Fold this sequence. Notes:
Structural class: alpha+beta
Oligomer: single chain
Order of helices and strands: EEHEEEEHEEEHHHHEHEEHEEHEE
Strand order of the largest sheet: 6-5-9-8-7
Shape: elongated
Amino acid sequence: xxxxxxxxxxxxxxxxxxxxxxxxxxxxxxxxxxxxxxxxxxxxxxxxxxxxxxxxxxxxxxxxxxxxxxxxxxxxxxxxxxxxxxxxxxxxxxxxxxxxxxxxxxxxxxxxxxxxxxxxxxxxxxxxxxxxxxxxxxxxxxxxxxxxxxxxxxxxxxxxxxxxxxxxxxxxxxxxxxxxxxxxxxxxxxxxxxxxxxxxxxxxxxxxxxxxxxxxxxxxxxxxxxxxxxxxxxxxxxxxxxxxxxxxxxxxxxxxxxxxxxxxxxxxxxxxxxxxxxxxxxxxxxxxxxxxxxxxxxxxxxxxxxxxxxxxxxxxxxxxxxxxxxxxxxxxxxxxxxxxxxxxxxxxxxxxxxxxxxxxxxxxxxxxxxxxxxxxxxxxxxxxxxxxxxxxxxxxxxxxxxxxxxxxxxxxxxxxxxxxxxxxxxxxxxxxxxxxxxxxxxxxxxxxxxxxxxxxxxxxxx
Length: 462
């Protein structure tokens, strides 16, 4: 670890390629280590099984051979080796009290408690090791009964087995280290090849961050995770580019729409300020004009704020009684336009969404219908089931919508030639489309039979 300027240690940061190679090497190392350990113990088990098989063969031969003791010149007794005993196998007799009678030429073999239990008839046989691994006294012991209060111990030296296992362990260790080194090298190469698409993606992202150019793309090959990542990156850049274009267009259109009322408002205020002796009738007309322009600016700013909410996080949707939303919007519309007549045919309906946004969209539809209706005109509102969803129809009895204007009525700031003489910002129906589409629905405009405009909203049912 390196040190910071204050003397503390700075953690070493490894690249993702290096970490991936280390993970691969570690996985291979663990696998090789487990395989080596398993191989070591398997070979050890097989070698000891061969020793045990040889001891058992000798024990079977001893079962048919009399076991005798001979007195040595010093007065002690020793076991007499049978003729069938192999040259590598040691032999001795042990009593249940622990007395040992070894061969006269061999060192006595330690007798444990289990060996004495075999001599006393408490166990049929016993098998265990004595001595330290790798030493000359490392023996494999097999103890079998040999008459009353006696047992015979057969001992096989394990020095050859220990030598074989030691050599095998060194070989397996070398193989494991070589496997880990090979895995580290191959893991690094594989990581480099696998991360090449990620490097291209990183370079593209850095290019976008440095140049702010959202038209950059990355080539994706195949349908694997990296290919889908490249596709998602391209889709994100496309969405960001569209959002930026919409934002630029919104700012340009808003500036254009604000310029006219602001210029007129400024002119009227300058006239009021510079001409103090203006006739009262003219002053009243100018003040009325200023008030109307302020109301128009207030409406325009409110619509712009509503459109800007498209970038805000969408709250969790809830169950909404669409019929109650329409009735609340009708009550507000009747207060705002007491001269208009609203005919409503509303069926109870349930949708998933945001009640405040839905009410704003319905109110905009009603306001648009009132604006295009003749004086004391009639607006028809209907809410009914349509297939798998609900349909809201708002119809006025005005001049209708021309064929040229139909594709554009929901665009931001669009105002037909006939609408420019009417109050409004050209954003009301754009807000309707934005709200409806955010709820998974559609909105359309057309001409009703018998004249007038018909605007229809379709929303999926809950």
